[in-house]
Design brief:
This protein is mainly α and 379 residues long. 71% of the residues lie in helices and 0% in strands. The protein contains 19 helices and no strands. The N and C termini lie far apart (75 Å).
């Protein structure tokens, strides 16, 4: 093939030997544009034919199995394995890959219905080898197919185990590897939390946090999570540390609060300190007030504002008194707004009295009026 192309290139070149450079360049560009046009047209034709083929296949599966699947999966009746088999695949037909793909699509659509029958669904997965099909897709070297297979398997759910993902855990592709680790945590029955060690993975990012949070929620729904401080201790990544601290608050792990207070004193990270203050507020850990009040003058503005918000969440007299104490010393207008807002959150009446007696500036009066107005309109 390459020899043929070279032959015609040399042939064209020989035809225009002796012509001015501009003419030769123009001919070359015209030939290039014609080639690109032909390639584009071929791609369009192939794409259109593929789309028509896919639509025809989708309609074929819908006509053959749509109503039958609705009968099985949207009924209140618990059918036996053989009843479902006689309805869906009485002749033990071996399905083609494209048939399995579109059957999966139909099943996933029906899973979203409130009347979905889990009992019959279990038998259906024994009749249609959908799990095996998507597991093979996951193990392929094609990155796109592997990622799509993870998404589909997560939607199938029934029969998924952690071992299904183990072959891709050491993938060189970071996004796939981290996604697989999150799914492993969700479905594994043994040592499910092992990948929380060592910062979970390299370059832990926001998307990793979203996926990991989703997996932790599912584990927690089955049984309470172990204390997440275990993985906080062994981490050197402040972004990952902040994630773990936030999760401690989300899952209301009050037993971790004393450790967070100590960790606040040890860490130098502004982000981590801020997240600790926020989480202690979420946990309503009143014992943290004294320490964070002592630390307040030595922290930068970001951490100070997190401490102020924490006091507002705790809503105790001690927290109120602390905010009153730092109020006259504060020069930053944004911080003043936060203090007034959190004072008002703790005790509206006392805040009104306190602000009025403190010889407020016009800015502080407007701030309090604005906070009151927002409270009224939000109600």
């Amino acid at each position: 093939m390459m020899d043929t192309i070279k032959f015609y290139l040399y042939y064209l070149d020989s035809l225009f030997i002796g012509y001015p450079f501009v003419i030769r360049m123009t001919v070359s560009l015209i030939m290039l544009l014609i080639s690109l046009y032909l390639i584009a047209m071929i791609r369009i034709v192939v794409t259109v034919r593929k789309r028509k083929r896919d639509n025809a296949r989708r309609e074929n599966i819908s006509e053959r199995f749509g109503e039958k699947l609705r009968t099985v999966l949207l009924t209140e009746q618990e059918m036996s394995f053989f009843e479902i088999k006689d309805l869906l695949n009485p002749n033990d037909t071996v399905f083609k890959n494209w048939e399995k793909k579109y059957i999966t699509d139909l099943v996933i659509q029906l899973k979203e219905k409130p009347s979905f029958n889990d009992h019959n669904y279990t038998h259906l997965l024994e009749i249609f080898p959908l799990l095996e099909f998507w597991e093979k897709k996951l193990q392929k070297d094609n990155l796109g197919e592997s990622k799509n297979a993870i998404r589909i398997l997560d939607q199938i759910r029934e029969g998924i185990t952690g071992s299904l993902f183990t072959k891709k855990i050491n993938s060189n592709e970071a996004s796939l590897r981290k996604h697989v680790k999150s799914e492993y945590l969700k479905y594994a029955s043994n040592d499910a939390f092992k990948f929380l060690e060592n910062n979970f993975d390299k370059d832990f990012n926001g998307l990793d946090g979203v996926r990991l949070h989703d997996s932790l929620k599912e584990r927690d729904a089955e049984r309470p999570l172990p204390l997440l401080t275990k993985w906080l201790k062994n981490s050197g990544n402040e972004f990952y540390q902040s994630f773990i601290i936030k999760e401690i608050g989300y899952f209301e792990q009050i037993a971790a609060a004393p450790y967070l207070v100590e960790f606040f004193k040890e860490t130098d990270s502004v982000e981590v300190k801020s997240e600790i203050a926020n989480t202690l507020g979420v946990l309503k850990y009143e014992d943290a007030i004294s320490l964070l009040a002592q630390e307040y003058p030595y922290q930068n503005t970001v951490v100070q504002e997190a401490i102020i918000d924490m006091m507002g969440e705790l809503r105790t007299k001690k927290a109120f008194d602390f905010l009153k104490e730092i109020y006259p010393q504060t020069q930053n207008n944004e911080t003043v707004i936060k203090i007034i807002k959190n004072l008002y959150k703790i005790d509206k009446r006392k805040t009104n009295t306190f602000i009025q007696k403190s010889a407020p500036t016009s800015f502080e009066k407007k701030t309090l009026a604005y906070i009151k107005h927002n409270e009224v309109t939000s109600v």
